[in-house]
Each structure stands twice: as structure tokens, then as C-alpha cells.
Task: structure prediction
Amino acid sequence: MKPDGIDELKELIAFLKEHEIAEFDLDRGDLKVRLKFASAIVPPAPAAPAGYDLAALARLIGTTGAPVVPVAAPAAHAAAPPAAAAPAPVEEEKLHIIKSPIVGTFYESPSPGSSAFVSNGDRIEKGQVICIVEAMKLMNEIEADAAGEIVKRLVTNGQPVEYGQPLFAIRTN
Result:
């Protein structure tokens, strides 16, 4: 990479950080760049938020006509806890949270159109497959780390999940 290319890369990084873009891919001929910034765990936005000047970003990195798509951008208000959060009922305080062991995409069933591995109210055993998290084209079966009753699924089918993100709340035996 030429010295002026490094300056362009620095400008690109500054732009991405300024607009809180968490992940970015650039593929221009022989140059392939993937930037991913560490941030607090927040639910990823389903699409690029309105208000990003993608044309300015394209000019900044010198592309014309090539699609420039931010992969995920955390919402500014998502990091703040809800102001009017009601105290949890006593029975909910004893719920066990099953968290994602990897980054990927959450799937509730083994294939599209088939029934979910588990639903609210189902009794599960430790080691039972409860969902799939797809990471890099690999379908990883996620097993329950405790036995109990599914109280709530905390993510939606097809949603990207982060490492340690809560997937299910269960009432343990």
C-alpha cells in the first residue's frame, strides 16, 4: 500500500468511527479491507440507519459505482438503559439466561419451514439442542447449559447475535 493509501485508510477509519459504523468491508481490485470496531454489546441494526451520507463515504475511499454498505451501526440510544424500567417480579429474578457462545446468526429451527427446537413453556434438559447459530457458513447447534422451562426467547429468528448475548431465559429446576 502506498503512503497516500495509508492516509486514505486513516480518513476512512476516522469517518467510520465518527458515524459509529461497527463493521465495514471494502473490495477494490487487489485491495481487500475489513474493519471491525470493538464496542459495547448492543443489538445490531437491521439495516443501515437513515442519515448516513454513503456518497460522501464512497468519495472518501475513491470508489465510483461500487456499493458501499455499512454492515451494522449501533443506535445511539440503544446503549442507554430504559428510563422507565419497572422492577422485575421476584420470580423473574431467579431466571437462568442462556447466552450465545459465538458471534453469528440465530436460527430457531434446523431448516426453514420446520418447527422450532424449543418454544415458550417447553421443558428442556441440560445438553438439549435449543437453537442454531450460524457462523461463517457453519451451523453450530447450541445446547442448553441448564435444565428447566423456557420462559422467553430473547432474540428473533434470523437476527445477528454477539458473543455472550442472551438468547433464552429459563426457569431452572
About this structure: Helices lie at 3-18, 54-61. The beta strands are 23-28, 31-36, 96-99, 104-107, 123-124, 129-135, 138-143, 148-153, 160-161, 166-172. The chain has two domains: 3-61, 94-172. The chain has two helices and ten strands.
